[in-house]
Specification:
There is one protein chain. The chain has 8 helices and 10 strands. It is α/β, with parallel strands linked by helices. Strands 4-5-10-9-6-7-8 form a 7-stranded mixed beta sheet, with helices on both faces. Strands 1-2-3 form a 3-stranded parallel beta sheet. Helix 8 (about 220-225) links the parallel strand 9 and strand 10 (about 230-235).
Length: about 240
């Protein structure tokens, strides 16, 4: 599922989501969140139809449907994404910040499904997937999700951890499950955000988990602000 509002970041996210739906052999539901005040149903319908048409033309093999929701954007996304395998939203956008982009970050804080915030560049498919792994319970799901993404894409995986984290222990069961995924590990003595940001310049996806309190910690929040590629937050 992708949440859109017709802004430039939503278009970027739409193209990414259509390619992902084709890769996963999945259906794509385009949910247009009408954030205008007052709402304009006719304009929202035209924008949604345009985006659905473009998604179908981009990936003809993907079944694309659309729907319009209004009201609070975060609540609308949460309700609409129930049962989805993945929720995709665009970046907040600069200059200015779009309501839907802000809502996407709010949903990522407590979503029952993984959330991708599409931002930055879209590098080649052979580019690596990067995962932040500190050994905490919150990042265990991120490690598993990163292996799945790398396996599906046929690309290498780079695992980044802070000094003292039991990285090999975290990776071991997933290495066994995905033996064909090449893995490189990097241990950072300092705070890991700068290293993750640097790696995001040549990554196709950065995967991160929640903190132990189930909220986005400082590293995921910083990456959503500054990463150079799409960021996937595990559920």
């Amino acid at each position: 599922m992708i949440g859109v509002d017709g802004t430039a970041p939503s278009w970027d996210a739409l193209y990414w989501a259509a390619r992902e739906a084709q890769r996963r052999r999945a259906r794509l539901r385009v949910v247009f969140v009408d954030t205008t005040e007052p709402s304009d149903p006719a304009l929202a319908s035209r924008k949604l139809a345009h985006m659905v048409t473009d998604a179908r033309q981009l990936e003809p093999s993907v079944r694309v449907s659309g729907m319009i929701v209004d009201g609070d954007a975060a609540e609308a996304l949460s309700l609409a994404s129930s049962g989805a395998a993945l929720l995709v939203v665009g970046d907040e956008g600069e200059p200015g910040r779009t309501p839907l982009g802000r809502a996407g970050r709010t949903v990522a804080d407590a979503s029952a499904v993984p959330v991708v915030v599409v931002r930055g560049q879209l590098p080649p498919d052979h580019s690596p997937v990067v995962v932040g792994a500190d050994g905490s319970a919150g990042t265990q799901s991120a490690v598993g999700l990163a292996f799945e993404e790398a396996g599906m894409r046929g690309c290498p995986l780079i695992a980044v951890s802070s000094a003292g984290a039991e990285l090999d222990e975290s990776l071991a069961p997933w290495r066994d499950k995905f033996p064909r995924v090449p893995v490189r590990t990097t241990t950072i003595e300092a705070e890991p955000t700068p290293a993750l940001l640097a790696l995001s310049r040549r990554a196709q996806l950065v995967v991160l988990g929640h903190g132990d309190d189930d909220l986005l910690g400082p590293v995921p929040s910083s990456m959503l602000d500054s990463a150079h590629c799409p960021v996937l937050i595990s559920a």
